[in-house]
Amino acid sequence: NKIRVVREELKFGELTASTQDKNVEGSYHEVEAGNVKARTEEASDFRVTAEEGKKNTSFDVFQGQIEVSSGDKRESVVAGERIRTSKSGRLKEKEVLPGVPILTAPRDQKVFILDPSRPAGVTLAWDTVPGAIKYLLMFSDTALFTDALYDSQRAGPRAPIGEVPEGSYHWMVAAVSANGVRGPDSGARRFRVSAQKIL
Question: Hey, which end of the chain has fewer CB within 10 Å, N or C?
Answer without folding.
Answer: C
